[in-house]
Amino acid sequence: MQIDSKLSELLESHGISGWDGAEAPALADATIVNVRAFIQALPPWVPDPEFAVDPDDGAVSIEWHGGPARVFSVSVGLTDRLACAGIDGTASWHGVVHFETGNLPDFVLQSIQRILA
Question: What is the pTM of this model?
């Protein structure tokens, strides 16, 4: 699966402290477990996202791009807290939701639909 290989690459390239040449924390195995659980909860119509690691807290940013100025991002870390933000070309929004394995918050799905519309 392409997502698994992307996550393995992230863990390999960001799995040690200082991966950014400064003081970035290592990407934790537990964060990757949370990211996988989040991805597995997505319905099949959702396209594959892009991934990046935040050098401040080691969380993984998961992003979908729906065109110019149309982006939705979810930050997944060590807890069940998901920080989310989006822009659809005319408006922006953000929020914090909690993720229970297998139960994707409506806010996340509605935001993905919004930027892909």
Answer: 0.92
Domain count, the chain: 1
91 half-sphere exposure, CB direction, 13 A CA radius: 5
Range of the domain at 97: 2-116
Per-residue pLDDT tens listing for the chain (117 residues): 588 899 899 999 999 999 999 999 999 999 999 999 999 999 999 999 999 999 999 999 999 999 999 999 999 999 999 999 999 999 999 999 999 988 999 999 999 999 999
Alpha-carbon distance 101 to 117, whole Å? 26
- Which residues does 80 contact at the CB level (< 8 Å), separation at least 6? 34, 98, 99, 100
